[in-house]
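User: structure tokens for DUF5686 family protein, please.
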Amino acid sequence: MKFINLEEGSFEFFNELRNGFSIKATATNKTYTPLANLLPADSFGTGLKRLTTTEFSVRLRFAFLEKFLESTFYRASLGSPYPIVEATYTKAVPGILNSKYNYSKVLFAVSDYIKTPPFGIINYQVYAGQTFGAAPYTFLDVAPGNELYYYNKYAFNTMIRYQYIHDRFAGLNYEHNIGNGIFKILPKLKFRQFYTVKALWGSLSDANKSLNYKQGSNFLSLDGKTYLELGTGVDNILRVFRVDFIWRVLPEKQPVSSIKNFGIFGSLRFNF
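Assistant: Done. Predicted tokens:
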């Protein structure tokens, strides 16, 4: 298991414009303290106990006809009938609130939720990003792994946490719920069948490899290769439970023998 402590303070300004456009400006100070089985802070400087950065970011978002569920302090999106597009630029500035690093980030993402009767529902997200400049792994893109038996929609479920780090990456999350599928022969159960595809491409610059590939670290980079997971499963079990069967297809060889090519994961999904 890997453990890391994060202390974060932020200030956000959000303004919603017409026709689905919105802008959010954020100033954030983050302090990471690696606690167990991760490269310690003093690997990046003698006597260093924490890794601190101060970031300023701007996010532009377009979601035409998006609907929300709002309360006094919170707002949750109910989705849009059209693709949602987001673009974010982040700049880290050294010398502010103990920040020591100077880098820039760009991130672009498109997501959509498409009803395709009688062929069910498609949900996808396509994303890409890059970090310009050298920085410790905590400020790069750490591919989201999952070491639990609970299925994580936003992670690679046959990947261990902190296995891959990148400063250039692109990915795809795709899920197609096809309705009854093979369970048409058992209509009273109301089971739903689906399949998933998750892919990731990434690379790490020589400068960031030199900074982060040190004794005691187990970080890897895909170096332009593909990480691919395929899955299927059963949803709407008693209207609550979901079971996923996940196969890691690529890369074919893993550096750690404990990493499995196949996993079964459970989760809760409330269907109405």
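User: Anything notable?

Assistant: The chain has one domain: 3-268.
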